[in-house]
Amino acid sequence: MLLEEEVAEDALVQVYFESYFKALFEELGHSGERRTVNALMVMFTHELYYGLVTNRQYCNRRNYCLKVSQKLMDDVSSALFLKSFGSEKLQKFQTLVNQIYNELILSFKSDISKMTWMDAESQTAALEKAQHMRLFADGGMSVFLNDTHLDSQLHEYPMNSGYLENAILLLKRYRKRMYSTYKKDPSDSEQM
After folding, report:
1. Is the pLDDT reported for residue 147 higher than 60?
2. pTM higher than the cut 0.85
3. Which helix (H) or strand (E) holds 90?
4. Distance between CA atoms of 82 and 9, rounded to whole angstroms?
5. 174 closest CA partner among 63, 75, 101
6. Average pLDDT, stretch 27-56?
7. What is the reported pLDDT for 103?
8. What does the alpha-carbon distance between residue 192 and residue 105 come to, in Å, rounded to a whole number?
9. Which of 89-97's residues contact partners 24+ apart within 8 Å by CB, and which partners?
10. What DSSP state is assigned to residue 63?
11. Is residue 18 situated within a structural domain?
12. How many angstroms separate the CA atoms of 128 and 168, rounded?
């Protein structure tokens, strides 16, 4: 079991640590610029080809392109999904989400208070973090149902009719969004 996922016995699992990347970048600093650029281009080309061009399973091209777009533009996909519901249904969902969230926070606080393996300082920090955690007030509707917000997120990535060019732009956007959380403080309540 790995993160509650079944993993085949013959599966290869790669684990990287920050020290690995520091050593890698230090080594790249000693390599020639041309060699480094070539290595990065090969890695990027390989990822583009296997991630965006070849099908991993039998499916039609249109569905495959939609799946790739959905993964690369998760915020836009969420907006389209939310827009498929009426306002009454969304309000019911929001009420249910708030109720579940409040129950989870109470349960979490109760469990933390009962933990004997945690020292008092850690318990206090965890309880304080739980106390300051806030559910995004509207479940993201102000963001995902706001076309102006989505347009502002996508304006620097002009789309054209070329699949590969669009995929590269969207992959760049996806990576920027993904890596923007790397240096955030894990003790910040937003990070939980």
Report:
1. yes
2. no
3. helix 87-114
4. 40
5. 75
6. 79
7. 94
8. 12
9. 90/139, 90/141, 93/139, 94/138, 94/139, 94/141, 97/135, 97/139
10. H
11. no
12. 42
Counted domains in the chain: 1
Residue 111 is assigned to a structural domain of this protein:
yes
pLDDT tens column, 58-89: 667 777 777 777 888 887 887 788 788 888 88
Structure tokens at 41: 């281009």
Q: Return the structure tokens found at 26.
A: 């230090």
Q: Compute the average pLDDT of residues 116-137.
A: 84
Per-residue confidence (pLDDT) for residue 2, from 0 to 100: 47
The token pair that represents 64 in the structure block = 């495959």
User: Could you tell me the residue range of the domain that residue 86 belongs to?
Assistant: 79-155
**4 domain residue, yes or no:** no
**DSSP secondary structure letters along 144-170:** HT-HHHHHHHHTTS---S-HHHHHHHH
**130 within some domain:** yes
Above 50 in pLDDT, residue 1? no
